[in-house]
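User: Here's a chain of 149 residues. Predict its fold as tokens.
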Amino acid sequence: MNHKEDYPADYLASILADVKTIAMVGASPDATKFSYGVLRVLHEQGYNMIPVNPREAGNEIRGLKVIGSLADIKEQVDMVQVFRASSALPGIAQEAIDIGAKVLWGQIGVFDEGAAKLAEDAGLRVVMDRCPKIELFRPFWKPKLNQEI
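Assistant: Prediction complete.
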């Protein structure tokens, strides 16, 4: 898949419909950070969110226990969402493979072709440089240009 082009709407929709448990690598306890807002919205929409941040391990973000690494998670993870620098993505892709995740999702600005190929070759679906919070609500944002004024 060419991750520099727009993803088909049904591809993104099927991922968001299929996943139940999301490990968010780079989750922040700071309510002013974008990762906090995304975690909040996805959790409020019913996803089982697992914040992953080694500096915050053992603490809580929005009442959710923070885990130090993907390897430390004791339940099945459907999707690994990444709020880290693009340079960290290949290593995180390998960790996602190692824990049996089904999806690797790089947040807006997080993009690495090598990580995408690694994950896809292992059977994961991959999304890069997109926000699941935005994609979750995108169908409601389509302009209705054919309406009369």
